[in-house]
Predict the structure.
Amino acid sequence: MTHYTKSACIRGKVLLLLALRYDLNPMIPNLELMAKAIQLSHESMNSLSGGPFAAIIVKDGEVISEGTNSVTAWNDPTAHAEIVAIRRACTKLQTFQLTGCDIYSTCEPCPMCLGAIYWARPKALYFAAERTDAAQAGFDDRFIYEQLTLPVHERTLPTMQTMREEAARVLKEWISKPDKREY
Amino acid sequence: MTHYTKSACIRGKVLLLLALRYDLNPMIPNLELMAKAIQLSHESMNSLSGGPFAAIIVKDGEVISEGTNSVTAWNDPTAHAEIVAIRRACTKLQTFQLTGCDIYSTCEPCPMCLGAIYWARPKALYFAAERTDAAQAGFDDRFIYEQLTLPVHERTLPTMQTMREEAARVLKEWISKPDKREY
């Protein structure tokens, strides 16, 4: 374990003792895993594949997948670390649900990634840097969080609704579809 | 054009006339494209590849890509229609930015997809059904929107922050990195 995880280790142990003392259901981060993710984010940044972000997905102590931001290398604006890791984990586990998995992300997930995490339904999320840290480094995370809470007509993205009735008819058909596979 | 787009066509023309009358910069939806997307969402639902959603991306009148929800067919919780269409459009255009593109989605994008749309930076978004219609059909869109606005400790997803300082150090390094490719 590298030197910079020592203070975090002590913090982790103190949290665990407090949680046990007050009979809370403790979330115990695996600090070696988070340190590994931070190391990956650093390597990814230096390899010029994308932004300085990484994520690791683990289940029952076993690493299922790793992902690093690959937006610019892959020409894919959705290739954030968490999305890459989720897609790889689902391919490996042959499922679209990450039941029982923990996600470690080097940064608070942006709305796209947090949405993806909710759809994947893992057991828990551990993150390191905050959206404000990402914003200071020039990333739009905080801005997009703000945009999502605004009414459609107040957003910077020109947006218009049309043909709601016709599309809602298909959604209604889904409700009564007998052979659908829900997700 | 199928019969169910007629009322929408009239609505579109009225909107255009109003926009021109009041000297607004009008957003003019291409209703044939939205009707095509709705048709795709219906076909996708019946082919059991995923939920009843589709998206089309267009630039300068040319269709760049189509996407349908493929979550269950591909074992990929991120394979929503908009994400699929964005990734295909970016592959085709060899870019991670959809500058000048319009996105047509058969439903108001969920937070994951709206986040992806913001990262892709298209010109405009047109959508048909609302998040409430999706919720009525059993999809979590509205629930995830609500979760995203909550403080971390109030969310249903157990979440914990750790090692912020170490991760933020990498983000700070990114700021002064001379050869970075911003996105």
